[in-house]
Amino acid sequence: MKRRKFLTARWEKLVMLNYEIDPLLLHPHIPVGTELDCWQGKALVSMVGFLFLETKVLGIPIPFHRNFEEVNLRFYVRRRGPEDWQRGVVFLKEIVPRSAIATVARVCYNENYEAMKMRHRINAQEINYEWRWQHNWNSLRAQITGEPQPWQAGSEEEFITEHYWGYAKQRDGGTVEYKVEHPPWRVWRAQTADFDCDIKGIYGAPFVEALQAQPRSAFVAVGSPVSVYQGVRL
What we know:
This protein is mainly β. It has five helices and 17 strands. Strand 12 and strand 13 (175-181) form a beta hairpin. The chain is globular and about 40 Å long.
């Protein structure tokens, strides 16, 4: 089936903090037709913050909606495709600064987008994303040094970054699948990383224990141009 590009953009400075979680907590969120994709037998969730730049929808730049921050909580699934396993992500919540962006994502993909006030600070040593909820700022931050490196085959960086499909549960119980294209990303291993957030209020009580723990890994991906294709129902 030929898929049409729905969105093109650049994703840059992706801060990725990765946590182990009880897989039973993810089971209610697994879209029909997919199964949990584990890393060395461990179920993982990731807090990811990044810049969404030069955004176009169906090839058209939308005024005042081209450059913005996004912070998401996601986990990993796979689906047996026509040729091999298709490894993908499921988003538990995606935060963006503009309500129109959130509305389009909810309508087109039934993704759990929410609009909040956001800001970021980026320099050569630190990347920091912040979002405001109930009058308080929450943050996702990483410090880096040196030059980014290609991920190593079989590494956790490869597992986290090399998922090229998205899967979204639909209101009627079905599943929408969409393809994401980008080249392999070089990464920095974070020297320090911090996640300061009202986890219960924003993400729910089931995720508090996992997200309050130290992340098992933290790194920053350089990013690249990306293409997101129109979704199809499985």
